[in-house]
Every structure is written in structure tokens, then in C-alpha cells.
Design goal:
The complex is a heterodimer of chains A (267) and B (198). With 267 residues, chain A is mainly α. Chain A has 9 helices and no strands.
Chain lengths: 267, 198
């Protein structure tokens, strides 16, 4: 493998491109230069920190440190799921349901890949575990937050229709089925679209990165296909678990629709 | 036939009520007094406490779907889940007699729900409810959107359906209708069911 090492002057030259965008914003009064500046600074600081953290983790291969990194990533992704809900569940469930289903799905899928297909030694080696987990987690997070938001939005909007079925003797599962189905479809849509378009519309970032670092294109493609399978598995499992858990939480054994278990509306 | 003991929920103080077979009981009272809350609580659509029995069988001893088939609730604005009218019925062709009685054309099965008026929705909601042959009817202002002729035919249809074996709780704002239809008339004020009047 061979790759071209960048020095800091190279990065500085590339940063001038952002300055051009910022200049255009000033000249055209787009009023975006401030946000562009902040976003650029955040990007640099966050990535440098991640680089340092990963370097430290690679130097101290330990299940504890890898596990701690996984927990931090899950906690942050859980906040993100919550922030993307227009009307979350009330109380503990708002955070707990999204983060627990996401944890189960993305951890299962990543551990499965690490112990059978990729199989580094040890299997929890952060160089393999954390990038794979990060990619699976990011997509699972999107699937779960889309699924949950779609479910709650459609149940709130179609409450009369769901209750009409209940009053005619339907079970709560029959009554909610179209809503759960729609939520799952929406949650899985980005993954399905990404798989359908990948390689034609855009080259996936991970594969591009491997090619830039000198990996044979066919080997890079094999890795990318593996990652796509993991993402599809994690997103599917996560969205199904989350939507099922939410339908369970929004109903009760007397077959009622329990929208009173949602947090108060934000608008 | 329908026995209600200490039925309560937020917004509704404990209700005690006994309705006999063949009886139609009118529930009156100002908007927001709790009339719809009472019907929803009997139907078990919202969490509630107390005891409700049908013909001596306790509600909690039956699965909720079975209970709601026996005790049919028609909200003031019935809900719809499919595109066209006919899809909401188990056996659309067999509904023709009821539809004709209520002045609905027999070919309305293909109509999209979105073009129905309030009164058409109420009548179709009623026919849809009766298709399941519930023993008790919980009706929330079933004729509020109808003209005088259709009100009369709807009342006749419901009275014939109730006959001597079934019973009905009927929420209405119309004194004259309560007088025509009901054996008894109760009032709800601020979540409290008052003693029977006339």
C-alpha cells in the first residue's frame, strides 16, 4: 500500500476554498459567512480531536476503552434521535426507547461482522471496531429517528381513523398496522436509496478513502459491499425494533391508542 | 342490560347507570361537559376506572375488541382509513337497504371519502357500525349534520334496530329529538351526570 501524506500547508491551501465561499457570501450578502466560519472551525476541531482520541485508543488496545468510546457514541446519537422527533414519547421513553433499540441493533450487527467476517485480532480492536460501528450507528440512527417520527406523526394525524377501526372491533395491532408499515418504509428508504444509487451517482466515502490510501479497487469494493450489508442489517433491525417498541408503548392491553403517552406538543 | 358502576376518568365524575333492553337514553348538556368522554369511557377507548357490564358479563372479562363489537360507539365525526366508501365495509353489497333508508344512493361505494359531506359521513358511519350488529349503541350526535327528512329516517332506522332486545345511549343537543326518541333523559354538567329528570 502506498499513499500520499498531506502536510499542514496542503490543508491551508484547501481551506482557501472555504474562504472563497465566505467571500462570495459577503459580496452577495448571503448572510451565511458567520455560520460557515463556525461550521468550518467545528469541523476542524472535532476531527482533530477524533484523530487524537483514535490514536490514543489504537495505542492502548483494550475492550474497556473501545467499549467506552462505543458508549459515548451511543449517547450522542441518542440525543440526535431525540432532537429529530417533532413529538417524542413522554418521560424516560423519549431517550430510552431510541437509544436502547439503536444500541441493540448497531452493536449486534457490528459484533457479528467483527467476530465472523472481518475478524481482527483481538475482535474488539478499535481500528476495526470503531469505524465499522460508527458507520452502522450513523445509518441506524437515521433509520430509527425517521421511523419513530413518521409513526408518531401519522398516528397523531390519523387518530380518528385508528380509533374508528378499534370501535368496529379491530385489535390495536390491526388498527395501527398501516401506520407502522409506513413508518418502517420511511425509516428504511435512505438505506434502500443509498444502495440503489451507490457506485453510479456517487462513490461511497469509505471506498474512496481506501482507494486513496492505496488499496486495490476491487478489495475496496469488497469492503464497501460488506459495510452496505451491515448498514442495511443495522438499519432494518433498528427501525423494526424501534417502531415495534413505540407501537407497544402507544397502546395498552385494552387495545387503546395511548397518545397521552407522548410529550406535550412542541408547537 | 348495560350496567355502569362508578365509571370515572379525568374530566368525568363517577357515573352510575343502568339501561334496560329496548331502552334509549338521551344524554344532554353543554359542549365540553363530558358527554363524549362518557361514551369513550364506556367503549374503553381511554383509560378509566369502575365497572361496566353487558348482560351480566364484566367488560374486563372480555377482550377489548370483543367488547367494542358488542358495544358500538359512533363518534360525532367518524374516522376513515381507506380511499373510497365501500372499502370501509365488510360486505358492501348487503348495505343497500340501510343506505336507501337513509337517502344515500346505492352507487356511493366508489365515492372518495374526501368528497363526502358531514351528514353523509355520519350516515355512512352509522351504517358501518350497524354492520357489526352491536347490542348497545353509543351515538354521539348522530344526526347533527342532517336535514329534517333525513333526521326522521335516521331516527326510524335506529329505533327499529334497537327494537326490544338492544339499547342505546344517545348524545344530543336537541330537546325535541330527546323527547321523540328517548325513554329517559339525563344531563351532564361539568363532568357530572345529574339525576334523571323526565
Amino acid at each position: 500500500m502506498s499513499y500520499i501524506i498531506l502536510d499542514y500547508a496542503d490543508l491551508a491551501i484547501a481551506a482557501s476554498l472555504v474562504l472563497i465561499s465566505g467571500g462570495a457570501s459577503l459580496v452577495l450578502r448571503l448572510d451565511i459567512e458567520r455560520r460557515l466560519l463556525i461550521a468550518t472551525l467545528r469541523m476542524v476541531v472535532q476531527l482533530v480531536l477524533v484523530g487524537l482520541v483514535l490514536k490514543a485508543l489504537f495505542a492502548n488496545v483494550s475492550p474497556l476503552w473501545t467499549g467506552l468510546a462505543v458508549v459515548v457514541m451511543l449517547a450522542v446519537a441518542g440525543r440526535e434521535i431525540l432532537a429529530r422527533q417533532s413529538r417524542p414519547l413522554a418521560g424516560f421513553w423519549a431517550y430510552g426507547l431510541g437509544v436502547s433499540t439503536m444500541a441493540v441493533a448497531s452493536t449486534l450487527v457490528t459484533v457479528f461482522a467483527l467476530t465472523t467476517q472481518v475478524a481482527p485480532d483481538p475482535w474488539y480492536h478499535p481500528q476495526y471496531a470503531l469505524p465499522l460501528f460508527g458507520m452502522v450507528l450513523g445509518n441506524t440512527m437515521t433509520g430509527i429517528s425517521l421511523g419513530l417520527d413518521t409513526l408518531v406523526t401519522s398516528l397523531t394525524r390519523e387518530r380518528a381513523a385508528v380509533e374508528a377501526k378499534l370501535t368496529l372491533g379491530a385489535t390495536i395491532h390491526e388498527a395501527m398496522r398501516p401506520n407502522a408499515r409506513q413508518a418502517l418504509r420511511t425509516g428504511l428508504m435512505p438505506t434502500v436509496n443509498a444502495m440503489a444509487a451507490t457506485g453510479v451517482v456517487a462513490l461511497p466515502g469509505m471506498m474512496t478513502g481506501q482507494i486513496l490510501s492505496g488499496v486495490e479497487p476491487v478489495e475496496a469494493v469488497k469492503y464497501q459491499i460488506l459495510v452496505m450489508f451491515l448498514i442495511a442489517g443495522g438499519t432494518g433491525l433498528g427501525a423494526i425494533l424501534a417502531v415495534l417498541a413505540a407501537t407497544w408503548r402507544l397502546s395498552d392491553p385494552r387495545h387503546r391508542l395511548r397518545l397521552d403517552r407522548l410529550a406535550a406538543s412542541r408547537d | 342490560m348495560l350496567t355502569i358502576n362508578d365509571l370515572a376518568r379525568p374530566g368525568l365524575e363517577p357515573v352510575n347507570l343502568e339501561i334496560s333492553a329496548g331502552e334509549i337514553v338521551a344524554i344532554m348538556g353543554p359542549s365540553g361537559a363530558g358527554k363524549s368522554l362518557l361514551l369513550r369511557a364506556i367503549s374503553d377507548l381511554d383509560p378509566n376506572t369502575g365497572m361496566v357490564m353487558l348482560g351480566g358479563r364484566a367488560r374486563e372479562a372480555m377482550p377489548a375488541p370483543t367488547w367494542r363489537k358488542e358495544v358500538g360507539y359512533l363518534p360525532a365525526e367518524p374516522g376513515w382509513w381507506a380511499e373510497t366508501v365501500g372499502e370501509h365495509f365488510q360486505n358492501w353489497p348487503s348495505q343497500q337497504d340501510s343506505l336507501a333508508t337513509l337517502g344515500m344512493p346505492g352507487d356511493c361505494g366508489d365515492w372518495p371519502i374526501s368528497r363526502l359531506s358531514t351528514g353523509e359521513r355520519q350516515r355512512l358511519g352509522l351504517v358501518r357500525l350497524l354492520e357489526g350488529v352491536p347490542q348497545v349503541l353509543l351515538l354521539d350526535e348522530p344526526t347533527s349534520g342532517l336535514d329534517a327528512d333525513t333526521v326522521e329516517s335516521t331516527e326510524r332506522l335506529i329505533r327499529d334496530y334497537i327494537g326490544t332486545q338492544r339499547c342505546c345511549l344517545w348524545v344530543t343537543h336537541d330537546d325535541a329529538q330527546a323527547g321523540r326518541m328517548a325513554n329517559r333523559c339525563l344531563r351532564i354538567e361539568a363532568g357530572r351526570l345529574a339525576e334523571p329528570t323526565s
